[in-house]
Amino acid sequence: MSLETKFSNAQLRRINLQSILYLCSCPSQVGVQIDSLRKLYEYQANCAERGRSELQSQVHERIAEATLAAHRIMEDCLQDVLSLEGWDPLTLEMPEGLRTLLEQEIDGG
Questions:
Q1: Is the overall model pTM greater than 0.90, yes or no?
Q2: How far is Cα 70 from Cα 41, in angstroms, rounded to an integer?
Q3: I need a surface site. Which of 14, 74, 94, 103 has the fewest CB within 10 A?
């Protein structure tokens, strides 16, 4: 079983940083969940390699299986959200219309 990705870790970081900087945290929230799922999958894969019993192997395999499904759903979700909001699909640049700088928000602007 392998984890297929639509977004690299670097691309997720790019989305997350822009989302946080420009006060549009919804894409970032999805990105954080994708990152967590990747870590969970990696943990399960490492545990499965060290499986000490058939039961432990089954447990890790089941968790990894569910993680793959959830990861696929969340990546599809992120792709849809970015498309709906009008992000550039090649550069992953947030559209100008969504950009509200944190400083502007703090200054009341």
A1: no
A2: 10
A3: 103
Smallest Cα–Cα separation from 3: which of 28, 35, 29?
35
**Tokens 């999805």 label which residue?**
30
Considering only residues 26 and 99, tell me which one the structure prediction assigns the higher pLDDT. 26
9-21 helix and 25-49 helix, angle to the nearest 10 degrees: 150
Residues 31/92, Cβ–Cβ less than 8 Å? no
* Domains of the chain, residue spans: 9-103
**Model pLDDT, residue 33:** 96
Contact between 33 and 74 (Cβ < 8 Å): yes
**11 near 19, Cβ under 8 Å?**
no
Express each pLDDT in 67-107 by its tens digit. 999 999 999 999 999 999 999 999 999 888 777 755 566 56
